[in-house]
Amino acid sequence: MKYSKVQYFFWVISGSEISVLKECENEYNRHANIGMMILITTVFAFFTACVTGFTFAHGNTWAVLGFATVWALLIFAIDRSMVNSIKKDPDAAKQPFWSFFFPRLLLATILAFFMSIPLDHIVFPEAIERQMKVNVHNDWLRRQAELTSGLNVAGTGTALKAVETELTGLRGELDSDCPLPDYKLAKQSYDESVQQLQTLQADYENKKRNAANYFNRLPRTIRGTRIVDQTYAALRRERNEAKAAVDQQTETSNGYRDEARRIDSAWRTAKQKEIDDKASQRSKTQERLDKDQETVRTQSDTFRDELAAMMGFDTKFTTLFLMPNWGVQVLKWAIFLALLVIEILPTYLKLKTPVGQYDMKMHEREVMTKNDIKARVNSEEQIANQTEAHRVAAEVELNKTVIDRVADIELRLAEEMLEDWEQIARAQAKRNVLELSQSTPV
Asked: Which residues is 226 bridged to in the sheet?
């Protein structure tokens, strides 16, 4: 059956053995579909890698394209290897499924997850930006609360209100009369002495008026002077006594008044000092509160600006991953599942497709190759065994010859040594006999 160039192209992508596949007309479309799925996955990988690259490297087009190409080739190699590593045994009653599918599902899940992230950033840019603003605001408020709690701004504010309350009370006390018992006693004594003074003053005025009236009725002398009698003298004496009593009472009243004023002045001076101390304390507390509030505002605003400037890929990923929006989350995971299906579909199709002509021929080739290799190995093993046996026999024969020659040589050496020893022994014996005959006396 004739095949098209497009089919041939997808066969190359799928990694099928084209020499075998050409003989399997029923398998043309299936292997072309597998190659198409691998190509689609590779295109998606290239596209998502471009999106990720342009997120990290703005303006560096060649670097992004290089990264996307390497990533796409990596995904292509992994997918192609996953499909090609599945081999079926036509002789088996049941083909294994989960032992092949589960590890490939795990790998496909990881790949689909990394491929879906850039797509999510393209689909949800507005939702991500809006959620990032919400997160920045919430983090800013939380940072303010942490700083406020750390610097105890609330406690300082409570202390300031307490000082202001005390200061208001002290000023109210200062505006009222002196509450000291000594002051009240002096004030009471002064009031009583004033009443007495008024009585004495009235008595003095009355006696003064009586003395004056009586003086005006006295007769005159020729020179015009009044003739003073004893009655006028008595009236004038009473008037002077009343005046002395008034002066005495006035002095007493002034003493009570001065005592009350002294006590009141001392109390007000002490109270004013207390007010000044409280006012100073309030100023220091207010200054500390203003400083802490300024610190909270400055540091929280700086923290907010730093958060607002964090617009990187990791921030967007975390924002989208933790976004409390069910609509976004459903669509996000739908994209992930779609990529997962695309990623695992070639493997699934390869596993679920019944054993076909291509699998049988591949199995036949593998069996033939296996048998051929086994026969070649057996033949080479027999040759090696025979060679080794011949080598061992030759070495044994050679060792026997060498040993025999060594024995002959050793025998001749021993005989020569014995002959030399015999000659030496004979000569020594003759010398011994000669020496013995010479030493014997005649």
From this structure: 220
